[in-house]
Automatic annotation (TrEMBL):
Gene Ontology MF: a single term: catalytic activity
Record-given protein name: EAL domain-containing protein
GO biological processes: regulation of DNA-templated transcription
Span within the parent record: 575 to 850 of 850
The keyword Coiled coil is annotated on this UniProt entry: yes
UniProt keyword terms in alphabetical order: Coiled coil, Membrane, Transmembrane, Transmembrane helix
Signal sequence, start to end: none
EAL domain location: 24-274
Organism field: Vreelandella nanhaiensis
Length: 276
């Protein structure tokens, strides 16, 4: 009896597990072809001067136009790209595409690209960025690289070396999702960051609690004490924008100000901005 029960359990679990594994392997195979089939797309989310509400730049965010599953968000495939090592090829594509787009915008509009922490596990990250700058001809000071704290947690010394090499190329570096990791303060002091992006979770709470306002205030003051440009991420309401402006935050990004849009739409937005 126990045996048949065991078999039942086995039968219950196995197909489901197999399905998940098969689905993953299928997605992995699909991804290998996706680059060649040109299924990846970029969208651009504007970033604004918080006070004047003028566009200062845009963040490139990748999407996968999968042939049978419609639009996949990065959360669905970036981890897989990291596991399979495809992240390097994908990231090169993102960087190249983002810079090419930026060339069609006004000169003073920056472009931000997210790097995966995994890209810092290889020593060629600065060479790859240098190659993109050379191939596209973008002014390096218009390119901003967003990295998370986890980059420094892996191997702090080599991360610092690589970041110094990146800075030597003239690009900007910003710490993404600030406040979600730990020991941020120490890293900020000794690493060559130009800016921080306060994580959305802190901004979300701004309407609700007093303590989160105190926290955001402290982050902004600390950022400014270190001469960093501070951006608030995930602004969804007028109240949140009002608060961060009041707290002297430099820049703001979020659905309330502008959602991620296609390259063509962003180009139009930038052109209209120049006319006004
Ligand atoms: P991130 O770098 O923190 O990017 C911001 C994410 O927050 C984007 O999600 C954006 O659409 C979303 N967002 C912006 N404003 C708001 C808002 O007001 N409310 C809410 N609820 N969400 C907002 P997305 O595009 O799904 O990207 C998720 C993450 O995937 C990114 O977080 C980034 O870490 C990663 N990612 C995206 N593109 C790339 C890429 O090309 N390479 C790498 N390595 N990672 C990428
Ligand atoms: Mg980012
Ligand atoms: Mg972020
Ligand atoms: Mg985030």
């Amino acid at each position: 009896e126990a045996k048949s029960k065991g078999r039942n359990l086995f039968q219950f679990y196995e197909p489901a597990m197999n399905e998940r594994i098969m689905e993953r392997r299928q997605l992995e195979m699909d991804m290998r072809q996706a680059l060649h089939r040109r299924e990846f797309r970029l969208v651009f989310q504007p970033r604004y001067n918080a006070t004047t509400q003028k566009i200062v730049g845009a963040e490139a965010l990748v999407r996968w136009l999968h042939p049978t599953r419609d639009l996949l968000s990065p959360a669905c495939f970036i981890p897989l790209a990291e596991e399979t090592g495809l992240i390097f090829e994908l990231s090169d594509w993102v960087l190249h595409e983002a810079c090419l787009n930026a060339l069609s915008w006004h000169d003073n509009v920056l472009v931000s690209v997210n790097l995966s922490p995994m890209e810092f596990q290889r020593n060629d990250v600065a060479d790859r960025i240098a190659a993109v700058i050379e191939r596209t001809g973008i002014a390096p000071q218009r390119l901003e690289l967003e990295i998370t704290e986890s980059v420094m947690l892996e191997d702090a010394t080599s991360a610092l070396t690589m970041m110094k090499k990146l800075k030597a190329l003239g690009v900007r570096l910003s710490m993404d999702d600030f406040g979600t990791g730990y020991s941020s303060l120490g890293y900020l002091r000794s690493y060559p960051f130009d800016g921080i992006k306060i994580d959305r979770s802190f901004i979300m709470d701004l309407d609700q609690t007093q303590s989160s306002e105190a926290l955001v205030n402290a982050i902004i003051s600390m950022g400014h004490a270190l001469a960093l440009t501070v951006t608030a991420e995930g602004i969804e309401t007028a109240e949140q924008l009002g608060k961060v402006v009041e707290l002297a935050c430099d820049q703001a990004q979020g659905f309330y100000l502008g959602r991620p849009v296609s390259p063509m739409q962003f180009r139009q937005v930038v052109e209209e901005m120049e006319l006004s």
